[in-house]
Amino acid sequence: MNGALLVAGTTSDAGKSVITAGLCRWLRRQGVSVAPFKAQNMSLNSFVTLDGAEIGRAQAMQAAAAGIEPDARMNPVLLKPGSDRRSQIVLLGHADGEVDAVEYRQHSGRLLDVALDSLAQLRREFDVVICEGAGSPAEINLRATDIANMGLARAADLPVIVVGDIDRGGVFAALHGTLALLAPADQALIAGFVINKFRGAPELLESGLRMLRGLTGRPVLGVVPWRGGLWMDAEDSLALDSRVASGGLSGPGGGSAGTDVLRVSVVRLPRISNFTDIDAIGNEPGVLVRFASAPAELADADLVVLPGTRATVCDLAWLRDRGFADVIAARARKGLPVLGICGGYQMLGRQIDDEVESGAGRVAGLGLLPVRVEFGAAKRLGRPAGAAYGAPVTGYEIHHGVAVVDGAEPFLDGCRSGAVWGTSWHGTMENDSFRRAFLTEVAALAGRDFVPAPDTDFAALREARLDVLGDLVAGHLDTDALLGLITGGPPPGLPVIPPAGGLLAEDSPAEDSPAGDSPAGDSPADGELGS
Predict the structure, then answer these.
(1) Which of 165, 159, 214, 169 is nearest to 192 (CA)?
(2) How many angstroms separate the CA atoms of 54 and 416, rounded?
(3) Which of 66, 176, 394, 396 has the most CB atoms lying inside 10 A of its own CB?
């Protein structure tokens, strides 16, 4: 077997990442060697590979579903927004400059070449490559410079399925409209649809499925039911809305060995990054996590977390403007726990010198840790290892700011002062023994009768959720049809749907300029950068 498939979506957060992961896990179970691929990703949730390359966190998760080590070629172009209009380009795992929307268009040709080369290499090494699109392929204002969706599909001759989120409403219009806005040559690659996040009686959908097929000439290849609590390494802050709406993350069942619940509030910074650091804490029985948008939401927290950010100085100013800084400082004076991770750690220090990320120069930090931070042009990427609380700890680091500690108790690569901890390492809470010891101390300082469950295995929980995704694919998608697309490509003679399908080639924007990349990714800032 040798083939590929592109999973596109009607919107960001429609389910492309989880369907891609589910397909990878299902194919792996069939004995197929499979790799994930996302040509261009816009995300502030990233990961570091064993060889020190930065890629999207979702592609690392999909690689785990495929049973392989993540590789920079699986996400050759990563965009990390630093403001509404500027993003850092990470090319094959390493920073390659910052651009705004206009400047980005000038890079699209070379980025497409890198993406196509990466995809070709993966296709030579694996039986199947499951590609994930970005945002929506129907962002027609960005089509001329797209490499993530139909630009990639056209250049590599990939069959495409489109995923729609029925939980948002309007899924039939979204699926039909996505197809109808595409140029004829793009429509020729759209081979079917998948409806995601369905709640209710499947028979109620039948008339709509029949009508959609009649209107488009393409089948719905499956209806995937709603499954809560999958939290699969989300790419963007849109996913936080569903977590907050459902009360935040919670443990897999039961409670702690004590009598109290442990409450964790994570400050929802405007440019929050790597909020997946909190997933392992949120999956401890008896721990409740919420993402706080107002200082009042910290009032009953036993632990406040300042997470990573792509814009440390700007988000620090936001903390002060919104009143978070005063609340956090008051907590520290009372001896109530505060944890800073990466950018959050930098904010907790006394001073930040930043001529790189913000260009603000010297800025006063919150002064809760004896730390001075200086930003350098080179980004630090690594997979460090150490120990704390007598437990081994591994993590990963992604930062321009370098912290220098002056006389505090060591904590991993950072430090601790009273009930305030800071570290540059991401992913530390995935170490079970360390996480339990840390939460035990947090509970003691907060005066809570909370004892972490002794047998929570985060790696096993993640594997179990990947297995659920594989089960959803096996149980609810037409896998025979999908295999046919993977090995044989899109079927010939698919009908062209108006209105865009009725345009003459010379009238179609997609035909007027070469395919390239756009910042059409999975972030609320996509439209700003691309407009």
Answers:
(1) 159
(2) 28
(3) 66
